[in-house]
Amino acid sequence: MPFIDEILxxxxxxxVGLEKNTGKTESLNYIISKLPTDYFSVAVTSIGLDGESLDxxxxxxxxxxxxxxxxFFGTSEKHYxxxxxxxxxxxxSDVTTALGRxxxxxxxxxxxxxxSGPSSGSALKRWMSSLNNFGIDLILVDGALSRLSTASPAIxxxxxxxxxxxxxxxxxxxxxxTSFVVDLINLPLFTGKxxxxxxxxxxxxxxxxxxxxxxxxxxxxxxxxxxxxxxxELPRGEKELVVxxxxxxxxxxxxxxxxxxxxxxxxxxxxxxxxxxCVNPVAPNGIVLDSDLLCDTLSAAIGLPVYDIVKxxxxxxx
Amino acid sequence: MTFKEIIDSPCGIRYCFDLLELxxxxxxxxxxxxxxxxxAEEIEEAYASLERFTLLLEREPSLVQNLQFRLQGxxxxxxxxxxxxxxxxxxxxxxxxxxxxALLGDDVQQLFSKTEITDVWSNFDLDNIIRxxxxxxxxxxxxxxxxxxxxxxRKLRRELESDPDNEExxxxxxxxxxxxxxxxxxxxxxxxxxxxxxxxxxxxLDILISKAIxxxxxxxxxxxxxxxxxxxxxxxxxxxxxxxQKGKLFQTLSFCYKSGEPGIIIGANMGGKTVALKSLCxxxxxxxxxxxxxxxxxxxxxxxxxxxxxxxxxDYQKGLSSFAAEMVRIDRMITLAESGAKTLAIIDEPARxxxxxxxxxxxxxxxxxxxxxxxxxxxxxxxxNVDSSARCWRVKGLVEEEGSDRLRMDYSLxxxxxxxxxxxxxxxxxxxxxxxxxxxxxxxxxxx
Lengths: 318, 448
Fold this sequence. Notes:
heterodimer, A: alpha/beta, Rossmann fold, 2 domains, 4-stranded parallel sheet, B: alpha/beta, MutS, DNA mismatch repair protein, Chain A, domain 3, 6-stranded mixed sheet, 4-stranded mixed sheet, 17 helices, about 50% helix
């Protein structure tokens, strides 16, 4: 049973996909099916709408989220009314979504539900803290369509990443792009006491500021322009950029790599733990990659175990 | 007039509203939607409750804290209660909400049962409602269509457990659940009025507690109801807090007025005339919405209308200049006053945006025609010399600081027999450090 023991160490884990149809929901269902729910209390929700039986963008079949007996789940009022499983209502919150308020319930039997939880990061955080009263050990968050924001360490402690042919149909490219994201997730924690200056946008950054300081805090997003400006000053001295967490970094991999090659450093104030990577070798347009080759190449590139949950489900179960 | 309509009045009542430690969004909405009280009886009753809660806060602060904690769970379920009353089919979510409300009410009643202070809460009979939605007597705020509602339900659920794909059982189960929900609706319907009352009482409780806290914390006072209005130690809480941040003290005011006797306030620029008017207006609103007021001691009279004309009121949308907007507003006030409705009108420097000759004529005549309205309390400030027998209050103005020859502003208001306006504008401008060249030239013109 790969990586389940690892998940149990954290209080909140988000499952995020690098693209739609990378098997995120499959991964979530796999995790749910393997959790020891008899002595472990689990709550699951999704940011935004998820768990619909047909993918709304590509109309491909999409597995629903299967909730096990005793598990808590957060979904919208609308989908709660439409549910088919027996469940006990625990809370009707004042967090609202386009589909009504977010409700929290405990499943009294196993079954499939549509999860459409809080639609923003801050609403999600509020919902998560509202669970404090119910003695939850682990919260699983299904991140929506290519949104990494739920994986922010400000929201969840650890993450499972899903990637696959839908993200890129070329193994080499897929590995390169995925390992770039992994590099960002694994950026080192900032170890200094405090940064010399704090900037909140590119306009704050005059050449003098960059030249005169070596440790620069970035309050908002780290963008290509900003990184480029700092890169130019690298020959004149060491530079370290400190961002809040990896979800605030919006730079191309080329620029990032060349910045690092020239001796620049980027560190984060908060770090998420990447537990595992799941792959889906099938893309909605019919392209199928070689699953074993993909897992091996990716695993070698990032130094972490990579799983194809669908294909190797039985193998992992043994 | 609702609280919502006056919350952005320039008198600064929003500041007092924001200071309230309301625990639920519903109480906030309830207060904003509440109507202004206009009779002495209503206000007296509201203040009697506020007194009791202030006493409760002093004697049993932990009880109040507990109540506040519970009230965080108050949700607005008015729509659900309307559906219940109208006989719509309710679902789990609505039953949950009703149960949650009833249990919250029960919690609050339990807390109140221990206090010795009487008349803080009138009990509701919630036992039946709770029994309907909590058939197992668990007293937990969760809900589903419980097995114990019917033998049939229990049987069908078991059957489905052993044969999850049996469509016939699924149908039967669905029908049985729907039947039970209908029965629950019928059982609960007779209590819909009681539940509505409970919902309102809980919102009122939240509001009262936060008013009591404000009363204590901000050193406000509960005014007495009388035949005329008078204040001692009057202050404007927002201005006071701004001054406090700068390490300065607010100089409190004493003032009184009466209907049928217009009053004018004259005095130097920067003498606090506008702040005085704002404080008076603020107190009147707070009074008529049952808040304690920012003063050491106060006596007040309820009115039917409060009119506050203040500052630059240009209205682009109606195409009115500041003068026109002001005239229209004062005209409306005159109509109100002449209709005989009890009105408090507070006007900051009327007609100040026009020439002094016509301006002072307008102000003098306004005072003259309004003298004949016995139900109008009028207070205005002006820089014009007006010909009127109105009571006149004067800002003390610049006085020499004790032990030095420096000037400082004394903001206190004193009643004065003559209404000759002060001529301190140049001195004040000098104190502000305005170009002496300009001010000397002005002084020269005055001398000739």
